[in-house]
């Protein structure tokens, strides 16, 4: 049930059998959530955190003028709102971008993990730091990369993150995002996203059809994006 999440943790550190059991026992409920829903509302008081077992979710902010900015995507294996354990409410919405299966972990169970499994606690601290690193890289894209390189970077990141979770077939992944949602991630208009996708297709770097993304030339796409996966901290080491 949580194999993708464990794979993501084990890409950075070893997880003992006791630590794995603690994660499994912390889950209080498994639930299915429809796509294109607000799952957690900004400001809502929270007593549990959400582990994404399958699907795509996002952190998002809506503005008065009707515009929405997606500030991070979450894919299978991600802890969507581990930070709510300390914050108790979020300054953004959590939305679903595909049908999702989630596990709910009460904050009391997370507190127990912090007391009984200090090594696992450090690993989860690492994962929240990696979330922050992803936010910083997105800020660079929003502020300084041109449309072609920011979209290329976005696609490279998603492939690598899904590979870590065991959810990629070589260089091919499920891709449920609409062009409007890509625009909300990248700070572009949907029309600009469409043109940029066409340009990357023209260079024979990707194929996107039937909600399936295939990267035809990953080294070429990475060069176009100036993609350096260092910010994903993929090296396994003891914490």
Which SSEs are present, and which pair or pack?
Blueprint: H1 3-10, H2 17-26, E1 29-33, E2 38-40, E3 48-54, E4 57-62, E5 68-74, H3 84-87, E6 93-96, E7 100-106, H4 107-116, H5 118-143, H6 147-164, E8 172-174, H7 179-186, H8 190-202, E9 206-209, E10 212-215, H9 218-225
Antiparallel strand pairs: 1-7, 2-6, 3-7, 4-5, 4-6, 8-10, 9-10
Helix pairs in contact: 6-8, 6-9, 7-8
Question: Short summary of the structure?
Answer:
With 239 residues, the protein is α+β, with helices and mostly antiparallel strands.
Task: Give the strand content.
Answer: 15-25%
The Rg value, from CA coordinates, equals 18 Å
Oligomer: single chain
Overall mean pLDDT score? 97
**Name of the CATH class of the largest domain:** Mainly Beta
User: Could you estimate the helical fraction of the residues in percent?
Assistant: 40-55%
Compute the number of structural domains. Answer: 2
- Structural class of the secondary elements? alpha+beta
> Count the helices. How many?
9
Q: CATH homologous superfamily name of the largest domain? A: Jelly Rolls
| Adjacency order of strands in the biggest sheet | 2-6-4-5
List segments where confidence is low: pLDDT < 50 over at least 5 consecutive residues. Answer: none
Element pattern in H and E: HHEEEEEHEEHHHEHHEEH
